[in-house]
Every structure is written in C-alpha cells, then in structure tokens.
Amino acid sequence: xxxxxDRMIRAAKLDAQVYEEVEADKSxxxxxxxxxxLSSVAGGIGxxxxxxxxxxxxxxxxxxxxxxxxxxxxxxxxxxxxx
Length: 83
Description:
Elements: H1 3-12, H2 16-24, H3 29-51, H4 53-81
C-alpha cells in the first residue's frame, strides 16, 4: 500500500501518530494537496446528483473555495486569537 493511501486511512481512523509524522515530513505537501483535491472531487460528485454533469465541476470548485475559507479561518484563529 502506498504511503499516501496509508496516511489517508490512518488519518481517517484519527491515529494521532500520523499527524505528528506528517508535521515532521516537509515533503508531505503534495499529499496534502492530493487529499484536498480528492475531497473536492467527492464533493463535486455529490453535487452532481442534483444538477447533472455540470454540477461535478461546479461542486468541486465550490468545495475547494469552502476548504480555502475554512483553512483561512482556522489559520486566523490559531495564529491571532489563540497564539
């Protein structure tokens, strides 16, 4: 099993060690981007159920925008409110 899939499974199981491992691994950024893109595509597939094939792209883009906003808010809270 590839390291990418193994890390995703362990993160889904809330294995605390995988979060420490990823934090220490400076080359894990492409894997993190891959998880975000895959989850956005999954959001697009879910949105496609209601709107058809064009919903796939629309839903994926909306999911990416939502992820970005959530990451930014989390960053602000973690760095400004709770330093």
